[in-house]
Amino acid sequence: KLNGNIVLVDYAKKLGARFDYNTRMVKLEKQAGRVTGCIAETGDGKFVRYIAKKGVVVATGGYAQNYQMLEALQPWNLRVIGRNGGLPGARGDGIRACLWAGAAMDETHSTMLFDRCALRIDQPTGAETAKKGDSGFFWIGSQPWLKVNADGKRFFNESGTYENILHADEYQKGHCHYTLFDANWPEQTKQFKMHGCSRVHPFENGADPNILWSVFAEKMLPGLIEKGFVVKADTIEELARKLGLPEKTLKATVERYNTLAQNGRDEDYGKEPHRLAPLTKAPFYGAKNTGYILCTMDGIRIDTTMNAIDTDGNPIPGLYVIGNDSGGFFANTYPNLATGVACGRTVTFGRLVGKHLAKA
Fold this sequence. Notes:
alpha+beta, three-stranded antiparallel sheet, single chain, elongated
């Protein structure tokens, strides 16, 4: 929106575009090997046929909300989630329709996972918890504070990418980790010099991050504490009890970590000195963390004009795929140090396919 006006929609309508909401694609139609249109179901249960003059562009958002597809294609990722931020319509309708039309899909299946879900200590990780929608949006979960497993032991270099620790969680009790930080956390987040969407302080050019540290401090953190997704304590022993972790082990882990931070050298896991932040000032905070799905990243194989590819490697006439339905861009993981890669890809490829079809 700009000044209260929906700019792109209004502009598109002036050029002849039509928007049919609450309409779900059911299947693609082909004649003589060419995709000629699609059949869709309206919100009131009626079916409608769309006939394509130049081609059908499939952009239904991937399949992050289709747990049956997720279980079939990438069950390992369902073990380390507690929250699902996929768009409501991301149920794989477009991908399945393309497969039925003969298109090929990526052979590696992956999901964009962020380590920013907080659970109460009695909540298990996994799809069933994510489906219930009862979890905490722990925005600062990617900060490289001390993180431990259910035994109260450090097991990871916390200065990794967002989802690395989640895959390490696959081999830990409960498939989760616990993030620990103290009252000095606002200054520590500045000291960490984070990039991408994990940054909570203005960038060097003055641009604001996605969410400022003050917003988290004043609004998000109190809410997480109130709902039990973050615990607060005056001592490490009390923190351990509230998180359900072994007191003696956690205290020893914190003491060891504080010594490493004081010496400025991580002899255990090799974390950078500026990201070694000791826990010395009460109150102390802790959270049980697991994964937060944003979207799926695997999809239908396409060529440089976004034309869908069949199983023999040939383009399917009339069928184009963009956004989270398209594949060939990511593999296995998300390069999260570059903010907006997934969003930027969808916007850019959408523009490119529009230009391509305009010339057709």
